[in-house]
Amino acid sequence: MDRSKFIQSSSWIRVLEKRLLSHQFFLRLADAPSLKDALRMLNDTIYQTSISKLEKDTDYEKALSQELLRFYKEMYEISPSNIPIDFTVVKYYYHNLKVMAKEYVKKEDLSHLYVPLGNLDIFGLRKLLQENTSSKNEYLREVKETIRLYEKTKRPSDIDIYLDRCYFKSLLKLADEADEDIFYSYVKDTIDFKNIRSLMRANAEGADLEFLTDILIDGGNIYKDNFYNYLNTKIEPDSKLFKYSNIYKYVKQGTEFFGKGRSLSRFELLVDNEMVDLIKNAKKITYGPEVIFAHVIAKEIELRNLRIIFVAKQNGLSSEFIRERLRDTYV
């Protein structure tokens, strides 16, 4: 990837970074007395336009969705290459493919669950599937294959398992195209996190080797075969399985939390925090695809934090509850 093509876009991203919400701002939002007050506090931010259009405060998801669409449209216009943005957008592609497969096998209309982001014509693809039209489209081939697997096993989980595998293959392919360290780290660390979480889930459910083999993903820094030795074994915070990996610090916290009888949900927070630490390295880079990628990840985390706060406020949950779940921020 020609880094010099990112000089102008990187300069513009540095300007846009000033719009990102700080960790201190999120702490103030967490202390807001109500959902209405939390929304009002965003009046002087980039979210003001979408929030002002809400008919009622509890429609905040519409505002977040509008901002997500606006943001990605802007990023595709700014970036000289789609690759730094596709790294996060492809997640929505595979979410949509899962929805498409599930509505096909259930014979239900789930169009309200689609997220129309990026360059994938999801509704055009859906029409091809419904009409059983032949196509060389790789995404359509993957959906058809996951439907074939489901019809063979009748296990709904097979849809998620197969398309998750396709998703990570797609990310690894993007990393090869980008050929920059930050993208390889992002993909491989994410795979390691997912595999460790899958192992702990398998152990908690008393699953067998066949199940673990099905849900593990190839391509991480930790070899997939290493996980088999830890099936039906308590995973210690200092386990050799991950002690020498890039994500050791985060996994240690997650296993300690889980060992106290709590859920695996903590891993989601730790994955996000590890990603924030990873992209902070881009602050040292003057220009390059990493600058765009870091901004996109930062925005994703920001939207996640806002959703956590809004949902908690709507349900009358405490500020302490919110703070425990807030992700680290880029600024």
Identify the overall geometry. globular
Arithmetic mean pLDDT? 94
Q: Which stretches of 5+ consecutive residues score pLDDT under 50?
A: none
Taken in chain order, the helices and strands follow as HHHHHHHHHHHHHHH
Proportion of residues in extended strands: under 5%
The helix-and-strand class reads: mainly alpha
- Beta strands, count: 0
Structure description:
The protein is mainly alpha-helical. It has one domain (3-325). It contains 15 helices and no strands. It has helices at residues 7-16, 23-30, 35-40, 48-52, 60-78, 83-106, 122-130, 138-153, 157-178, 181-205, 209-215, 248-259, 266-279, 289-314, 319-325. Helix 5 runs antiparallel to helix 14 (289-314), helix 9 (157-178) packs antiparallel against helix 10 and helix 12 runs antiparallel to helix 13 (266-279).
Describe the secondary-structure layout:
Elements: H1 7-16, H2 23-30, H3 35-40, H4 48-52, H5 60-78, H6 83-106, H7 122-130, H8 138-153, H9 157-178, H10 181-205, H11 209-215, H12 248-259, H13 266-279, H14 289-314, H15 319-325
Helix pairs in contact: 1-14, 5-14, 6-7, 6-8, 6-9, 6-14, 7-8, 8-9, 9-10, 10-13, 12-13, 13-14
Summarize this entry quickly.
With 331 residues, the protein is an all-alpha fold. The chain has 15 helices and no strands.
Highlighted features:
331 residues; mainly alpha; 15 helices; globular
